[in-house]
Amino acid sequence: MQVLNYTEETQESIEEYQYLLYKTYYKDVFRTIYYIVKNKEVAKELTNDAYLKAFENMHSLKNLNKVKSWICVIASNLAKNYMKKNNRVISLDNIDYISTSYDIEDDIIKSIEKKENLNKLKQVLQDLDPDSKQIIIMRYYKELSYKSICEQLNLKIGTVKSRINRAKEKIYNLLKKEGDIND
Amino acid sequence: MIKEKRDKLDELIQNVISEELDSIDISDEEIELEWSKLKQKMHKRPRRIKYNRTNKIVAVILGTVISVGLLGQVMDNETVAWKRNLKDVVKIFENKKTINNTSTIKSEKGNSSDETYENAPMNMSIEEARDIVNFNFKTLPYKEQNLIIKQITENDYKVELNYIDDKGKIRLIQFPEGDEYKENINVPKESIIEKFKINNITYTIVKIGDKKSKVLWSYYGIRNILDIKYSIKKEEVVEMIKGMK
Question: What's the predicted TM-score (pTM) here?
Answer without folding.
Answer: 0.49
